[in-house]
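Morning run. Coffee first, then this:
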Amino acid sequence: MIVVYHKNNRILSVSSDQKTALFFDKKITISGGLNLLATQFPQSKIVWCNEVYKKNLNLDEIDSLLHHDKMMLSYNPSDFNYLGKKIGYIDESPFIKVNKNVRYPTWQMSSDVGIIHSSVLIEINGKIKMDADFDYYLNSMAKLCMPLGLLCYSEPRLLLDFGPRGTAKEDSHYTLFRFVKQHYKTRWVFLLFMNLIFYERKFSILEMIYSGFYKNRNKNSINLDAINVNSTLKIVNEETIDVIVPTIGRRNYLYDFLCDLRNQKYLPKNVIIVEQNPLPDSVSELDYLTAEKWPFIIKHTFTHQTGACNARNLALSQVESNWVFFADDDIRIMNNFIQKAFENIKRFGANSVSFSCLKNEDMRCYENFFQWSSFGSGCSFVNKESFKDCNFKMGFEFGFGEDSDFGMQLRNNGEDVIYFPEPNIIHLKAPVGGFRIKPILEWEKDIIKPKPSPTVMLYQLLHNTHEQRLGYKLILFFKYYKYQMIKNPIAYLLNFNKQWNRSVFWANELNKK
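And here it is:
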């Protein structure tokens, strides 16, 4: 392990647990110094620490925190991040609103304290400019490499205690515009410009022009596939797993999936089925559950109350095993699916993973693992301890967003959601079932129709920053214009604000459920 102490964007000292002498030039940038050290010690973990936090650095836990080479950790104990809150105007991802109390997935890195393996720095050497501003370099590296499989986290355990806290900095619009230009599509530069005009009355024309002198960094040849992943964490002590399946009107599809489970090389312990039928006099149609023998225990609940949130919560209350497979009733899996899933889970030391779940004819967009911004309630494995105190909020029932909300609950519990392209799930997307009997939602009788849907707004209120909501509002304003009848821009704006406010009202009502 090599530790680099720095101050004012200059290296002060370098220490190592190796006997090899370390030579460095104090005149070079911190990013340049880290890359030189990585070249000299390609098998080492490299720690950086601001001199202010030297006494607070938790060196004893470094090895357990960076449990495989394809990770990057940092921590900023202050309430602000390097780019400030305004980045939320153009980024709706869950990586913006960082929970500083737990390990939280984010590309927003900090120069205060952090760690990375030399192999990552070697792979990106010459492909990302070694900026003199160390914070800019770290954020740029994480933003570019996170979609390529580098797992990036805000990790409070890097410090024994938070020590001195920084004071709020005045956001630099020049830095913000430059970062957006170099790491997002060009249209986001103009959207940031418009957001600052509409919501802050700031006309940042010089900053926008300034950003035009910088090239986008996404067009590079970074490839992290050569970095081996072999976690030292032992998270799977006992590979017992329960499968939860909500179902409604899909008798034959469910049977095929149960047969897939029956043919698994690694069998589940329990399959928990929650069958729904809203008709008062209806009974279960799943006679094969008792007519046939199954190599696992089937826990079958029949209810007249429809809704995926309620069904999954009923199923979760019956879980016994250490792991849960969140499944849909119209999916198909290979006979080694569970076995292969656990192999990947152990290799990455992950507690929550979602798998590729597409129709046979669909093209797969992602070929590598990465930190996913959502969660698949029909294609995921989660450690039981990870979703303690989590549930599918009833406010999302019959709407959209319960998957993403559950994923955010996991992240705020200190977990992450890793996407795996393999082993894959085939999603048949059955034409029956689901919302066959459309419920009458409370807001449908409103004279002013809420926009967006109150369930979408509920997610916005629960998990996004103020700036993220305003950025979403501006995009929705432009997108919705061509689909509605009011063509006078002023009248449309007034009506749109009424619809938005009505959506906020109903979202707050849903949050009470």
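The chain has 15 helices and 16 strands. Good start to the day.
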